[in-house]
Write a structure and sequence with these properties.
mainly beta, 22-stranded antiparallel beta barrel, 5-stranded mixed beta sheet, 5 helices, 47 strands
């Protein structure tokens, strides 16, 4: 009934808004020095989800633009500084955008994942943007691709197919992942639960580092990964792409096809992606049964009109992942390259429908995102019948109303709500069936004066978790159940100052929180993915974070870079530990054999995380780029004066990239890189062992060729070219994490890997 009322409201609103006044936004993009037109420059309006390219005269036209309102417009062109400008559409005169030639990548990008869309230099949030081109390569999933490129971002891995994002040392339910404006909900509390997203479907990805609870509520203690769909093409245009690549190490083959169009404001997009890999190779052999296959189908249809836009997004994600249930003494490696997965394995299916809207009311607007997700996670031990089977349905609403600007102030009020219902359908049990309800409201304001920007906001949240009690056949309790209610007030302050065209500063301070998740509150059983017995604690309190960060950014013709520092003190930090070396014996129902498991109980401590991150790029000549990124996090359990677990080692990535002009081809490049990972001696000795430092050598080459008018991009990239044997500090298969019985028993990370790729964009333009 509620959904019917919402859809009726939307229908009436669209009918009313159909008569909204509209204009054509026209302009020209030229070289600032020569005044020559730039052909093929991209003009993008993020808040309207529209993008067009300039014609042979450097001109563009975007039809059915609202007659009122101020919108951020971004213009991009290769070898030129990206231009970000706020445009008042009340003026109908054609605009001329003059781009400055530049050998550097502009450090000014548009950020949409914060309450108000703006250029990064006037946005206090520490953020990085990863483009579609950067997501292509030798990575096995979306998080793997981000961890290779964004300072401050790492990944907790289980074999090759599962990666959990880590931002400034925080992971699991402390990092929010968004897609189609909707929080991804997939039982992300689990160690071996990855992110159910197609890395090739993203138009770009924004990584927001630092607490973001003001806008996103609970779980955004560490940051946000905002996966943004490609913008819709200009009216009358059809665009598409085909990409495929193959990796030598694991036989990983990726194929993805997309087609998108715009017919008089009716927009649509469809995509299909398939991935398949056999067991990955290490310097000691192939890790047994570590292959995976993944199928993704997604689409969008909707309207882009003068009143804004309304889009329906839908997707289906299916992932089959092999596991290996080994104990000390069992072999870890073989040379099997079969693509058939053995047992045990995971069968994951994620369905999602999202209705994304931006309704314009003159100088104010309403963004409304409605979502439904169904996550089915099956863990299969030795047959197609699931041992563990979580089935969760989530309904969500997120609304933000942008009030008219007044005296330089940009106010926003927001409301969000979600309802999750999870049940157990498997033979074994780990967490109880539960219902989780949350609602929150915030107010935010941003003021710009001169070269300064100030922002402030406050938020109230209410969360209710109810776990259902359950007994076994003998009447003994398996789950005692829980009924918890949490409320919280969060606040945030931000400030930016642009000193000149090349130097800027930003800083943030505030508080955030995270409510305990159902696994932390009510677990009682063997978690096969972690080979341990987990026991929850219904008396847990919410985590409370107090954080501050500051970043200095610089960009000139020779040097670009940034350096940031941060500190995040978390009161009542939740994690599971085996401090007392407690064990429990569980009898396998099928074999009848007993097995000992380490018992991990959820508790709370106080924690302090601090560190630094940044990047530095040198351009001695226009075609040479010396790129460097670095990050370091120190994390301490202050209650017991010892390190926190699962904290990334310090990293330093160095790349020498050449982009010479070669007649007859475009965008030619080749590079060589050295990735340095330092020792991680600060570990929680109750279930971790230190890891040594290591250095990896990488290289690649690529170019775009024109076959007639059709561009064709070819590339080859190689990672770990020396076939280095190493253990990553965040690998769950490394010694000490794989088995506590034998701290030398573990699985090496992936060895040498060469990836060959093809990318073909195509389409028609009117």
């Amino acid at each position: 009934m509620k959904l019917k009322l919402i859809y009726c409201f939307l229908f009436l609103f669209v009918q009313f808004s159909a008569f909204a006044d509209a204009i054509d936004f026209k302009g020209k993009v030229v070289d600032a020095k020569t005044n020559q037109p730039l052909i093929g420059a991209t003009v993008n309006i993020p808040d309207l989800r529209l993008s067009v390219a300039t014609n042979i005269n450097g001109e563009f036209a975007i039809k059915s633009i609202p007659t009122k309102g101020r919108f951020v417009v971004q213009i991009q062109y290769l070898s030129y500084k990206t231009l970000t400008q706020t445009v008042d559409f009340s003026s109908t005169d054609p605009m001329v955008f003059a781009l400055q030639p530049s050998v550097i990548e502009s450090h000014e990008v548009v950020i949409t994942g914060t309450p108000i869309t703006s250029g990064s230099r006037s946005n206090s949030t520490s953020a990085s943007v990863v483009t579609k081109e950067q997501l292509q390569g030798s990575s096995t999933n979306l998080i793997d691709a981000l961890a290779r490129q964004v300072p401050g971002v790492s990944q907790i891995t289980t074999s090759q197919a599962i990666s959990k994002p880590v931002i400034r040392g925080l992971s699991y339910n402390r990092v929010v992942t968004l897609n189609d404006g909707v929080k991804q909900q997939g039982q992300q509390w689990g160690d071996e639960h990855g992110i159910e997203m197609d890395q090739f479907a993203a138009g770009r990805v924004e990584v927001l580092r630092g607490a973001a609870s003001l806008q996103y509520g609970s779980d955004a203690l560490g940051g946000v990964i905002n996966v943004i769909d490609p913008p819709t093409p200009g009216e009358g245009n059809i665009q598409g792409e085909f990409l495929t690549n193959y990796s030598s190490n694991n036989g990983l083959s990726n194929t993805s096809v997309m087609l998108s169009g715009n017919d008089n404001g009716f927009v649509w997009r469809g995509r299909g992606t398939y991935q398949n890999a056999y067991s990955f190779n290490t310097p000691a052999g192939r890790y047994i049964n570590s292959g995976f296959n993944q199928t993704n189908v997604s689409g969008m249809f909707g309207l882009n009109k003068a009143w804004g836009y309304s889009h329906v997004n839908f997707s289906y994600f299916k992932d089959n992942i092999g596991f290996y249930d080994a104990e000390p003494g069992d072999p870890l490696y073989n040379e099997n390259t079969s693509r058939t997965l053995d047992y045990p394995r995971q069968d994951i299916r994620h369905y999602k429908v999202a209705l994304n809207n931006n309704f314009l009311f003159g100088s104010s607007s309403l963004k409304l995102d409605l979502g439904f997700q169904k996550n089915q996670r099956r863990e299969l031990e030795d047959s197609p019948t699931p041992s563990l089977f979580f089935d969760m349905n989530t309904y969500s609403l997120d609304a933000k109303y942008y009030l008219p600007e007044s005296n330089g102030w940009h106010p926003v009020i927001g409301l969000s709500s979600s309802l999750s219902h999870s049940i157990n359908l498997g033979e074994e049990l780990l967490i109880p069936a539960y219902d989780e309800y949350s609602t929150g409201a915030f107010i935010y304001a941003k003021k710009v004066w001169g070269q300064n920007t100030f922002s402030a906001g406050a938020r109230f949240d209410y969360i209710k978790n109810k776990g259902k009690a359950q007994n076994d056949e003998a009447g003994d309790p398996i789950f005692t159940g829980f009924d918890n209610k949490f409320s919280n007030v969060s606040a945030a302050l931000g400030y930016t100052h642009i000193f000149n065209d090349v130097l800027s500063f930003k800083a943030n301070a505030g508080s955030a929180f995270r409510a305990p998740n159902p696994a932390e509150l009510g677990s009682n059983g063997v978690h096969e993915g972690t080979s341990r017995y987990e026991i929850g604690n219904a008396g847990l309190s919410p985590e409370r974070s107090y954080q501050a960060d500051a970043t200095l950014e610089y960009g000139s013709g020779f040097v670009t870079g940034s350096f940031g520092i941060y500190e995040n003190y978390i009161h009542n930090y939740i994690y599971a530990s085996n401090t007392n070396k407690e064990q429990i014996t569980v009898t396998d129902e099928e074999s009848g054999e007993p097995r000992n498991y380490d018992v991990y109980r959820y508790g709370q401590v106080n924690a302090n995380l601090y560190g630094f991150e940044g990047n530095l790029t040198l351009h001695p000549v226009p075609f040479i780029h010396i790129e460097n990124t670095f990050s370091y996090t120190e994390a301490k359990n202050t209650s017991f004066d010892r390190p926190l677990p699962l904290i990334p080692a310090g990293t330093l990535h160095n790349t020498l990239r050449f982009e010479p002009k070669v007649k007859g081809i475009k965008d030619f490049y080749f590079y060589a890189g050295i990735d340095n990972y330092f020792k991680q001696n600060r570990v929680d000795a109750t279930f971790e062992t230190p890891t040594d430092g290591y250095t990896l050598l990488n290289a690649g080459i690529g170019a775009t060729f024109n076959i007639g008018k059709q561009p064709l991009k070819l590339y080859v990239s190689g990672t770990n070219l020396t076939n280095k044997a190493y253990y990553d500090a965040l690998s769950r298969l490394r010694p000490g994490r794989y088995s506590q019985e034998d701290p030398t028993y573990g699985v090496y990370n992936m060895g040498r890997n060469i990836t060959f790729g093809v990318y073909i964009p195509f389409g028609t333009n009117k």
